[in-house]
Prior knowledge:
This protein is of the alpha+beta class. Helix content is 36%, strand content 16%. It contains 8 helices and 12 strands. It has helices spanning 2-26, 42-75, 92-121, 229-240, 289-300, 341-349, 351-354, 367-378; strands at residues 129-136, 139-144, 149-152, 154-158, 162-169, 174-177, 185-187, 193-198, 203-209, 221-227, 331-332, 337-338. The model is unreliable at 246-277 (pLDDT under 50). Bound molecules: dinuclear copper ion (CUA). Dinuclear copper ion (CUA) binds at residues 135, 138, 174, 209, 211-213, 217, 220.
Amino acid sequence: MPERTAAARRPARLVPFLSLLALVAGCSPERYPQTALLPLSDYARIGDHVQDQTFYWALGVFVLVEGALLYAIFRFRGRPDDPEPPQIHGNTTIEIIWTLIPALILAAIAVPTVKGIFETNASPTGDVLKIEVIGHQWWWEFRYPDLNVTTANELHVPVGRTVELLQNSADVVHSFWPPRFAGKRDVFPGRQTRMWFKADSAGLFPGQCAEFCGIQHARMAFQVRASSPAEYDAWAAHMRTLGPKPAAAAPSGDSVKTASAGGTVQGPKVPAQGPQAKADSATPSSQDPEYAKGEQLFKMKGCIGCHSLQAVDAPKGMIGPNLATVGSRAYIAAGWLRNTDENLEHWIREPQTVKKGVLMPNLGVTAEEAKALRAYLRAHQ
Ligand code: CUA
C-alpha cells in the first residue's frame, strides 16, 4: 500500500522543520529574557545597530563565499584522467580584488563601531539620575546619592530619564551587565567606571555579572525594574520613609500610610511600587505573631551584623545586601531565586546548600526560627 507508506513518511519529513521551529521559539524573550537582541534603551540600541550591520555583512559574505564554493565544487569537479588545471598563483588582479573587498567591508563596519564607542563613552548631559553601583562577592549594591537611599539586587530606574551608573567594587573585579539596557562594564576596587542609559519600556528585566569573580559568579545576578516616572517617584518617596529607626519601632500596621499619600510614618506594611512581578507571597504584617520573634532572632543570630534594614542613611561597607525592602523583591540570593516563602526560609536555613561558598554562613537556624525570620523579613516591603 504505497499511499499509506507515503503518509507515514510525511511526519518524519517534518522533523527538521519542527526542530528549527522549536529552536526559534526556544529563543523567545519570554523564556530567555536576558538578551541583548531586544534593546530597550538608547544605549542598547547603539550596540544592537552595530551588531545588525555586522551581521548583514557577515551574512552577505557567507552566502557569496559558500555559493562560489559549492558552484566550483560541482561545476569544476575533477575526473581521474583530467590534466593539471591552470595555476593562478601570483595573479595580481585577483590579489588586489580580494584584498580590497575585505578592506572595504571592514571600513564599513568600523564606521558605526567607532561612532558607537564614542557615543556610549560620552558623558550624559541634562536631567541625569546618578546611581552608584557597587559590586560585591556575590551581589549588587545600589545607592541613590540624591535620595540618600540604598538598595540591593534590584535597580530601580524611571522610564524616559537618563541614569548614569557610577561603578565600583568592594572586593574583586566584576562586570555590570543589564543586557536589555546597556553593554558590559567592568567594575574595579578603587577605580570608578561609568555607564549610562535611558530606559524606554517599563518592566522587570534580568542582568548578570559578566566577569568571573569567584565560585558564585554565575549567581551574581540582579533585576532592573524600570517604571513610569510617577511609579518611580512613588518608590523613591517610599524608600525615603525607610529610615534609621528599625521597622519594629513602627506602631502596628493601621497607622502606616502609603508613601505616595505623603506619609512619613516608618512601617513595614507599605506595598512596594513597580510595574511587574512581586514576591510570590501574601501581604505580610508586623502584627503577625511570628514578626516579633523574627525581629529578636535577627539580632540574636547575628544577621544584623551584615545586613542593614534601613534604606535611608544606610551604612557603607556592609558585608551583606541591604534588606530594607527584601520582602517585596521579586528575587532573593542576588537576583536569581524566586522570593517565595519556601525559598526564603530555605535560604535562611541553609545558605551554603542554596549557594555554596556564599559569605552567609549556615547559622544553625531551625525550621521554626526560619519561619519567624521569614515573617520578619517579609514585612520589610
Ligand atoms: Cu561578580 Cu562575576
